[in-house]
Amino acid sequence: MKTIKEFELTGKKVILRSDFNVSIKDGKIISNERITAELPTINYLIEKGAKVIIMSHLGKIKSEEDKKKNTLYIVYEELLKLMNTKIIFSPATHGKILEEKISFLQNGEILLMENTRYEDLENKKESNCDEELSRYWASLGDIFINDAFGMTHRKHASNYGISKFLPTGIGFLIENEISGLSPIIKPQKPFTIIMSGAKLEDKLSLIKSLVPKCDKLLLGGGIANTFLAVNNNIGQSLASHDLINEAQNLIAIYKERIIMPVDVKVKNDTNSKVKDISDITDNDIILDIGPKTIELYKKYISASETIFLNGTVGKYEDDGFEVGTKEVLKAVSQTKAYTVIGGGDALSSAEYFKINNFSFISTGGGATLNYIATEKLTCFEE
Fold first, then answer.
1. How many H helices and E strands in the chain?
2. Which residues, in sequence order, are bridge partners of residue 28?
3. Is residue 314 within 8 Å of 265, Cβ to Cβ?
4. Is the dihedral of CA 377, 378, 379, 380 positive or negative?
5. Please, what's the b/e burial string for 174-195 (b: 16 or more CB within 10 A of its CB; e: otherwise)?
6. CA-CA distance, 236 to 266, in Å (whole number)?
7. What number of other Cβ atoms are within 10 A of residue 93's Cβ?
8. For residue 285, what are the β-bridge partners?
9. What is the mean pLDDT of residues 80-86?
């Protein structure tokens, strides 16, 4: 795999695939970590006199309404604040407007193209790695630098597709990710993974690959609820009910490794309160782990030599349900272990609570999990 430094870049049109899939709330970027993490690669291309064409996705595009709320213009505005160079925005993802804007680029200038997933409105051309779209985007440049680590577990037109038609290399961010994650690939024991998320289906195959590698898997969020539902009433809580049998099978095999909440903070029709798992009623909604679980998780965290944290254990953005996420983050940041956090929600929560003392902060979510589980970057495979 060639690196960015192995190319002659001066005067070349360089397509840079970045990951600017930032979290947005009330029309504002919650965390610009994914943008600032890309700046070393962008600045290097500018210094070398390249004409930089940046492509990225933002959210999912299934309707015209999605296009309005997931425009990359908000990222363009952020880049203008962060950089002292000419940046052009193209509202088009194909056609004459895009091509003309690229033709006017001078050495050391940047064009940010609109959300690549706008192309998904027509037969999911981007996400399905449409060959015609891949070939077209590749025709816009001379060199392709893939630096979107957060998308390395996907084969889309804007990463895998373009690489089939242009000389391809990786940027500094992907290099840095591979280096920072190497102690997780071959971890010092005990190795603890803290995994949360809304849906088990998003991470089931990865959990199956990761559980044998770790000593403890501490669960939170909707994933924890699905595992809890095997033997408990979880009320109206978010869970993947069709995967409860899968969760049951994993518990049967890895009972000593999979650690679930023993108490939680719930919301119901009248109030919110901490309850033991056995006391949950039909109207309760689990939104955070409870104090007993926090202490239990802290015990495993403090005993670990290597820790990987993905996601948040509670709905921290809601008042009264932030304690679990904050305390777990604090515990991980204060340990002497090699610590990695990854995933948009984890990054946003760490920034929200101003907790940043980790050995490595990964910009990937599913991509980080996939790399740890498989030790491969899918978008670079044949």
1. 15, 17
2. 25
3. yes
4. positive
5. bbbbbebbebbeebeeebbbbb
6. 10
7. 22
8. 267
9. 96
Residue 209, C-beta contacts closer than 8 angstroms, at least 6 positions apart:
373, 374
DSSP 153-169: T---IIIIIHHTTS-EE
Distance (Å, rounded) from C-alpha 341 to C-alpha 360?
7
Residue 252 pLDDT exceeds 90 = yes
Residue partners of 276: CB distance under 8 A and separation at least 6: 262, 263, 290, 292
Token digits for 195?
């995994």
CATH 3.90.25.10 fits 187-374, yes or no: no
Chain Cα centroid distance, residue 206: 14
Query: Of 322, 301, 309, whose CA–CA distance to 365 is shortest?
Result: 309
Average confidence (pLDDT) over 11-30? 93
The answer to whether 4-175 and 187-374 have equal CATH topology is: yes
Helices (H), 140-202: 162-163, 172-185
> Rounded to the nearest 10 degrees, what angle do helices 323-334 and 291-302 cross at?
20
Relative orientation angle of helices 244-253 and 221-228, to the nearest 10 degrees: 80
Does the structure show a pLDDT above 80 at 100? yes
* Residue 58 phi, psi (nearest 5): -150, 110
Taken in order 22, 23, 26, 29, the sign of the CA dihedral is: negative
What's 242's DSSP letter? G
Q: Say which range, 47-51, 232-236, 256-260, 350-354, has the weakest mean pLDDT.
A: 350-354
Q: Please choose, from the candidates 130, 126, 163, the residue with its C-alpha nearest in 3D space to the C-alpha of residue 144.
A: 163
Tokens of 60: 């999912």
Right CATH for 4-175 from 3.40.50.1260, 3.30.70.260, 3.30.160.340, 2.60.120.230: 3.40.50.1260
Spatial CA neighbour of 37 closest among 88, 79, 71, 85: 79
pTM for this model (two decimals): 0.85
Tokens of 37: 């993490």
How many alpha carbons fall within 13 Å on the CB side of residue 214? Answer: 31
Cα–Cα dist 97/80, whole Å = 21
- Going by C-alpha positions, the residue among 41, 33, 38 that lies closest to residue 356 is 33
Domain ranges within the chain, ordered by starting residue: 4-175, 187-374
